Amino acid sequence: MLRDQALQMMLSERGAAIVVITEGDTSMVPHFSGKDAVLAAPRAARPRPGDLLLYRQGDYWVVHRFLGWTAAHDGGEVLRTRGDGRNVLDPRLVAKDVLARVDALRRGGAWYSLTGRPAGVYARLMAWHDLFWAAVGVVGGKLGFGGMVAALDLGVLRLVVPLAFPLFHRRIAPPAVSGPDGAV
Fold first, then answer.
1. pLDDT per residue of the chain (184 residues) written in tens, 0 to 9
2. How many CB atoms are located within 10 Å of the residue 14 CB?
3. Cα separations (Å) of 135 from 51, 76, 82, 167?
4. Coil, strand or helix at 119
């Protein structure tokens, strides 16, 4: 919990924090993986489909794509998220567990902005992709083709992302902020 407090202090005092992705994490491949990093910023507004969110899940932080809102069992609203590199939806997420929104990411040593109109279009397209393939994964799993669907989903991403990502996201200078100790 000390890392949560450090992150929240950095977000409130500096307006942003850099969080390094845990080595070996592939849940957001091909967008980023272990040793890459994200620039987290306080949640200023209600998230939009496609936004990357930093949230607490159990005893660790997660950066996954926000896909939309859905009803909770008690009638309230919860968030649906998914790691782009996974073919299944994450457990439902309550808004209070979201620590920050991701405004930039470092992949392959270069920083890219996730803000602006082109990046927003890309983010929404990725959210639609993730929802579509999660649904296909459910059907494929029931028919015994879950593994094939997941491989096809990841294959599509591995082909499209290297071409499309640089077209929608501008390179930026490394942020002048640090981050709390530890990785997500």
1. 446 777 777 777 777 888 889 889 899 999 998 889 999 998 778 899 999 999 988 888 899 999 999 998 888 899 999 999 999 999 999 988 898 999 999 998 999 999 999 999 999 999 999 999 999 999 999 999 999 999 999 999 999 999 999 999 999 999 987 666 555 5
2. 14
3. 20, 23, 12, 28
4. helix
Q: What are phi and psi of 14, to 5 degrees?
A: -105, -15
* Triad 94, 96, 101: Cα angle to 5°: 95
Please state the domain count of the chain: 1
Give Dmax over CA atoms of the chain in angstroms.
51
Q: Would 132 be classed as within a structural domain?
A: yes
36: in domain: yes
Phi-psi bin for 102: left (phi > 0), alpha (psi -120 to 50), beta? beta
Q: Is the pTM of this model over 0.85?
A: yes
**133 lies in which domain range?**
2-172
Tell the burial category of 162 from Cβ atoms under 10 Å away from its Cβ (0-12, 13-18, 19+).
exposed
Residue 53 in contact with residue 102, Cβ under 8 Å? yes
Q: Is residue 178 part of a domain?
A: no
Q: Which helix (H) or strand (E) covers residue 148, if one does?
A: helix 146-168
User: What CATH number did the domain enclosing 56 receive?
Assistant: 2.10.109.10
